[in-house]
Amino acid sequence: MTTIVKTEKYQRGTFGTLIKWAFIIFNVVMLVWIVGGLHSVSTIEVHSNAERAGRAIGSAIGVASLLTLWVFGDIILGALVFFTRGQKVVTEQIVGHAFSAGSAGTLGEGNFGKADELIAQYKNKLGETPTRSEHPSRSSSGAVSFGKRS
User: What string of DSSP letters covers 90-138?
Assistant: First the structure.
């Protein structure tokens, strides 16, 4: 059975591609900044419980600030990425075969001559001759009768 698969894609322009890469780079930089900040906080030596509490509170404030900056930056850049996505291009791809493997063998695309030969051989084997006209018959009045007898 033949299936048609439609794929929708957006083709970005130069500015849209630049905005998309800015969005990706911003996300990578923010991730590295948060991981690096947490790593540098974990290497601070503390000598008392007060210093340990201060380190925990300071790192929580720092991470919260960076996450807030990340969210606002993603909202702004994400909107720009969305609005610069370009025009929609729909591509259609035919998947599968029109003939089953047992009835017509393996026919390549566009090999209709072989298919016509197989149909002619099949009709000859059945002893059948085409008797119907492919076009509707016309009556004496000139109106199309679609096979009705007048």
Answer: EEEEEES-SS-HHHH----TT-HHHHHHHHHHHHHHHT----S-SSPPB
